[in-house]
Amino acid sequence: MVYKCTVADTGDVVGVKKLKQVKKYKSRELAILKEMSHTNVIRMQHAFFTKGDNPEDSILNIVMDYIPMSVHRVLAQFRLLDQPVHPLLQKMYAYQLLRGLAYVHSFGVMHRDIKPANLLVDPTCHILKICDFGSAKKVDTENASVSYITSRHYRAPELVFGTTKYD
Questions:
Q1: If DSSP codes are grouped into helix, strand and coil, which group holds residue 30?
Q2: I want to staple 113 with a disulfide (CB 3.0 to 4.6 A). Which of 74, 92, 108, 151 is the partner?
Q3: Annotated domain spans of the chain
Q4: From the candidates 9, 53, 57, 113, which is the catalytic residue?
Q5: Is CATH 3.40.50.300 correct for 2-160?
């Protein structure tokens, strides 16, 4: 869950993503976001832990840039207008997505959940940012990975067939 918040001291608008920490699953999002610094990747500003509703629950709060729209919402707006997305916007978003992915991959990180809802867009300047690194992981050809974790929006053919070692 991501909340739009205002920083009391500065008045800056930020997004705060709240993640319940589940001991059964390893969350790599915080470690990966700490490494990232690119125009087309969401920027983490701060992170802190709070207690959940139950005393044993721990909540990770990630403070990041607030980007008001996603590609999913952009597509929905064009559908409502019964218009195709302008070719220039398609090219701009595709270029920025590939540029961001090249940066993420240069760190040996696989996002594993690229879909329109995880691509944020600033409507004032059309800058696209990749977000939601909750399913991401570092490439590890030595150990098996889960083939089902990737997005249902798109799945690489080798994952459809259940491979557990991929890069």
A1: helix
A2: 151
A3: 2-160
A4: 113
A5: no
